[in-house]
Amino acid sequence: MFKIYILSDVDMRKIVLALVACLSISTAYSQENACEKQWQIEQQKTIQIKKLKQQQCAYLWDDAKVVALLKNMNLKSKNGQWMSTDQCDVIQVGQQKYMLYAAYYKHDLSNLYVIRDSANNLYGFFRDLGKYSFVDDKFTPTATANQHGVDLKCAALGNNPKLPNILIQNIFQRGIDLTRYSVEDSSK
What we know:
28% of the residues lie in helices and 28% in strands. It is α+β, with helices and mostly antiparallel strands. The strands form two sheets. Strands 1, 2, 3, 4, 5, 6 and 9 form a seven-stranded antiparallel sheet that branches. Strands 7-8 form a two-stranded antiparallel sheet. β4 and β5 (111-116) form a beta hairpin. α2 packs across α4.
């Protein structure tokens, strides 16, 4: 025999809220940050990188390919916070040479790393620290930030599967962890 229970509106609301809370929590944990996962995996694949020189290059926001890469990460090239120099590092892995670009937000301190190969393929990481409040003197992380307040974003233009590993190794070998923020990172 089946018993039929009649629930009050209050009881139904409690059940619905409990189900929504459980669903939200399980969704949050199932949507692991793919860029962060890639960062963790590629750190283990050590490669030898030789820094060749620093050379002049276009500002990131003046480079149409980089602007397209920024759009893939939902970033705006016309953001007034962008800070960058016209200097890039040239590195060599094996016989191949690559160009490395870097930029950051002057107030929010979020930063961008981009690598370009000789065939004009690009790959980049953006370490989003959220928004900085001058009034409260604190950061407000994005809704999808990790436990350290970092929302790591990544994107590619072109088809060079080696670029993520080379960029990750270059950053990692300089002692920078993209899943956390340290003031010292800018001097590394």
